[in-house]
Amino acid sequence: MSTSEIDHLLSTTRAVRKRLDLERPVEPGVILECLRLAIQAPSGGNRQNWRFVVVTDPEKRAGLGELYRSGGRDYLATRRASITTDDQLRAAESSEYLASVIERVPVHVIPCLIGRPPAVENQAGFFGSIHPAAWSFMLALRSRGLGSTWTTFHLAHEREAAALIGIPDDVTQVALLPVAHTIGTEFKPARRRPVEEVTYWNEFGNTEH
Fold first, then answer.
1. CA–CA separation, 18 vs 151, rounded Å?
2. Which of 65, 83, 87, 125 is paired with 118 by a 20 to 30 Å CA distance?
3. Are the C-beta atoms of 135 and 80 separated by less than 8 Å?
4. Taking the mean position of all CA atoms in its chain, how far away is CA 177?
5. Are 162 and 169 in contact (CB under 8 A)?
């Protein structure tokens, strides 16, 4: 793969919600291919203490969907009330749409970590052991015509979700990644502030280099 192809993959892997294909099945082999790439990502101390629960059972997805909506209801309502721009409106509508159909997304992937996060110190290190793998998984999905988005609403009911899918008490759920083929495969880079405005050199706030 050329540098330009890699750059295109990195710049067009979007958070996909409205363009998830709710009707097309996803083969288990594709999920395993993408996870096989994901676990090549670095993990803290090379502990590789990640686990991935892949949920395809319709009843379990329905249960997760109810927990997801319950966990996100107040946030989505507050967000809707604070909208001031078209971009914010589109983002809110996208999140609301996913909440309304999430149980219909054919695959839910729940990244987990063995253990529970520390109370205060080193939480960044704890969760840093799963974030690279999750992003690699999403990039691998994109390269195969599938999409996803990082979601956490169901974690408001983490224990109920754990009971639903048999996750032990000493395992931490980190997110829920709804996975489906995308409706169309052409995605564009997102609008972002210039990198020069958000990059500081040697001291926070200093944009000169």
1. 14
2. 65
3. no
4. 5
5. yes
